[in-house]
UniProtKB/TrEMBL annotation:
Gene Ontology CC: one annotated term: cytosol
Family: Belongs to the transferase hexapeptide repeat family.
Species of provenance: Tsukamurella sputi
PANTHER family recorded: ACETYLTRANSFERASE C18B11.09C-RELATED (PTHR23416:SF23), SIALIC ACID SYNTHASE-RELATED (PTHR23416)
Single GO MF annotation: O-acyltransferase activity
Protein name (Swiss-Prot/TrEMBL): Putative colanic acid biosynthesis acetyltransferase
Keywords per UniProt: Transferase
Amino acid sequence: MSGPEAGPRRPDVFRDLASFDGSGIDRGRSVMVRCLWLAVSGTVLMRWWFPNRARIAVLRAFGAVIGDGCIVRHRVRIELPWFLELGDHTWVGEGVWIIDKAPVRIGSHVCISQGAVLCAASHDPRRPDFPEVDRPVTIGDGAWVALGATVLSGVTVGTNAVVRAGEVAARDIPAVRPAATRMKGEDDDR
């Protein structure tokens, strides 16, 4: 409930969402451009019949930096494409959600599998007004964010690292040496 019928704030509830106003949040483009993006992305851009080459061109037109040979499948939800960078030969699978209220940088030869979430946005739970705290997400070259995995705000996934299926990466994941360079019998810490 909101408004006068909601009653007074309860003393046992810390969060006061009525005090959240969103002021000072920079979305990187005007309201008009954001509305145009919502219209384009919601109507044709992420439909199965819309060609990948055209999808990449539209993302670039809205400010995304996308390298050569990238594949962005249908049903991918990108909040603010002007905060998105993809390296060369990177795949973004069906149903991926990129909440890029801060920059999301994805390296080259990266696979972001179906249903994964990259979330460069959060809130400060220590304050009653619950202000936004948006921090970049970085995915290193050769990394794999597997099916249904989530990478949270401020996290860096190192070169060749893997975020396992369904895993929530709340802290940085270190780089991994390619298997071809490891000694026989050597294994990763993870």
